[in-house]
């Protein structure tokens, strides 16, 4: 692709005319953004087509990554970066008096995910394309994201995240590749010519229509595909007869029922209707995705008995676990394979990543609900379970063990167990997480299938989280050690040679300071709050959950506030504490925590006696694009989950890569960050793994012991419910009850004292300018090992067995 500035200018003006019949001077920013996006997609169209052609022609093995979430953020900037035309476009647009950065701000964050799970999937797709691996994503095209978060009087208020309001310039609708997904109905068995077959009747048919988005590799010709499925009616979506009778709601009832499947990410499942919709969503995209894969596989003329030689299906957490049974269904019912042959192909094809040890996330479905919605799939799972239980029974001669490992038990279908039994690989996402899976939570299965379990520590794409989010730092790194790190991120380690270099330290500090000023301006414009840019930017941005312990962070802030009130001359480095998080709509304790953060923020920020020393800011509607603004300016990265509860974490890696110092428990990938940077470049506190597991096993933890023995904790907890935070006495009663009456499930009170001491250490370290800057550089230097390029190379070599394919144009 031979692009010049003049060609881009001319192409842009022509595209604008074709799309809108407008001149630049009369166009809105939205029209200018859509024009540029359409042009970029046009530029990659040949690469996209050639990529698919060469995969088919060369009959290469391809991987399909199934995930409920793909938190891809905004694509314009990252696509320009990967194509290597960012500067060219900026200059061309500048000649036309258009600011590229303003067009990037027009784009909506894609409402396709919520937290680390979805962002990981997005990073993985970027790395798969950039490493020239034949691999694609498969998920749901949600009409609305999780929700758009508004903070009103300190409370989270959810409003619809209509991210498609202005369309999506990056996607292409492929109605000719739609699939039928079947729900409900009855299944009968028929014996014909000595062979048992199954007939599915009276089902509800839903049309799954794919929308394809190009995933552009960095500095190569590879353009893979993210295929997202949208639910539509198969035949009529409007009942004219009902409408004519004045029954207007009934006229579109069926249409709305079907479209609800792809309407919203994670519908509330506290009621049976929500559970049913979630299961529908999972089967919907899994069935459509596998049908699409098999259709393309057969189109290439390959024999179905070699399916696993050419296809790898990876299921991201338990949500797509039904893929095991769906692949079996198609191979047996539609391709007429024997159970034994189908099972061999299925287990060789599917691999499973486990992302959590929390029981709430190890999905299970009530048998009655599952059987009614997916009758044939339930029959297949029953047979999988029967055969598996026979194996367990044969090995252990212990019915208790059989019951404990059964996929169907206690009135539920256990999806994590199905994923383990039906795959050839089960990986955790950090060394500690995998160790706990193997030795604690899933030890029964690890002992039974020792060859299946392995670790693949999560990673992040340094192209978005360093090159795009922090271009000034990226330019300094390239100027200092050359550009090899861009494709070989491990080479960032060469920065260690400059960690004590005063000039380099000053340059690093200058970039960080400028980023802090930029973000302070953003905060002033959005919230009207003046931020001290010489303060420590202390940041905790992630999903709101009790195990992530935002409450512990708040307790430290309150302790600091009370100390300042007692001693106005307390010698501390000024701090600005930033929070960003969404709480699930039905997670009332998390929503109360958001109210607590905002109440504390209001208390402190309006207190003139202390607000020159500390301020607290809750960032509304945390998103990928907001993360790109805040991560480059962070001084301190809060990674304070209860040890053993965070599977990995990836924000820890993003902050580290941008030169933050981490305050952390030895949990998830924090362990590996600590191993990489050493004791001197991270601040560790809190309980270790064995101590947490011992408390949980022996149930001998007593939260009142810490409440009664620590006056600081007693004051903080009492003030939660006595109105001193400027709200009603009952406002934070659930948090108070959770920590005391319910015995502090995540050991906030136990770790409090050590956390306070760790923050004291942060204060002292920051005063030593040379040491602090050296720590920042050491973190950047060691961050290359956490690039998702490294992670994907391990997946490709050890799990998927896929080769790099260079696409020629």
TrEMBL record:
This is Alpha-1,4 glucan phosphorylase. One of its GO terms (biological process) is glycogen catabolic process. SUPFAM superfamilies: UDP-Glycosyltransferase/glycogen phosphorylase. GO terms for molecular function: glycogen phosphorylase activity; pyridoxal phosphate binding. Its cofactor is pyridoxal 5'-phosphate. It is an enzyme of class 2 (transferase). It comes from Clostridium pasteurianum BC1. It comes from the Bacteria. Allosteric enzyme that catalyzes the rate-limiting step in glycogen catabolism, the phosphorolytic cleavage of glycogen to produce glucose-1-phosphate, and plays a central role in maintaining cellular and organismal glucose homeostasis. Phosphorylase is an important allosteric enzyme in carbohydrate metabolism. Enzymes from different sources differ in their regulatory mechanisms and in their natural substrates. However, all known phosphorylases share catalytic and structural properties.
